[in-house]
Amino acid sequence: MVCYRPTGLRAAARGVSLLMPGMPRFSDSLPMMLLRARETVMSRFRPMIHVRGITEQQWRALRALEDLGELSAAGLAAECSILAPSMTRILRKLSEQGLVTVTKSRLDQRELKVRISEKGKRLVAEVSPRIEAQYARLREQLGAERLEALYRELKHLIALGTPPGREHELPPVAAPALDDENGSVGDE
């Protein structure tokens, strides 16, 4: 009689899948680890955003517009990693709330241009200090070097998936610039 359990326990202890030798366990796979890391980070910011009556995706759009200025709807969707149909719904809601203005491009009537409104800027300014405080706390917990190394490694990983010839669209590989003396960064 062959006993697979001890082997399975040893495999599990090594972080290897029991059914697919050589593969990491599901919970240790890179996509799952990245999803859990994202959830851990967002759990710090989500309450500050939701209490203002906006979703995470709406916040992303507002932050991108505040940071980058006017964008096309398609450019904003790409910048925020949000599918275009979802961005259309997000922009409709943000426009109804008076947080953004959406106009047709003068050059191409099919293209929509999006800009953050004064009300949207006030909302970002109101939430940003709390977001920055969470970044400072994260930097304190991880340490500045580890956090900067994490940024570098994530940007490198993202660059691996960037199609050839589009590398210029990537942000610099260095860690983001610090916004203040507390060591916080300006994005959520």
List the helices and strands and how they pair.
Layout: H1 5-13, H2 30-50, H3 56-68, E1 71-72, H4 73-80, H5 84-96, E2 100-104, E3 112-116, H6 118-142, H7 144-160
Antiparallel strand pairs: 1-3, 2-3
Describe the structure.
This protein has 7 helices and 3 strands. The protein is mainly alpha-helical. It has a 3-stranded antiparallel sheet with strand order 1-3-2. The chain is globular and about 55 Å long. The model is unreliable at 1-10 and 173-188 (pLDDT under 50).
What is the percent of helical residues? Answer: 55-70%
Oligomer: single chain
Side-by-side strand order of the widest sheet: 1-3-2
Bulk shape: globular
Let me know the average pLDDT: 83
Major sheet description: 3 strands, antiparallel
Briefly, what is this?
With 188 residues, the chain is mostly helical. 56% of the residues lie in helices and 6% in strands. Residues 1-10 and 173-188 have low confidence and may be disordered.
Key phrases:
single chain, 188 residues, mainly alpha, 3-stranded antiparallel sheet, 3 strands, globular, disordered C terminus
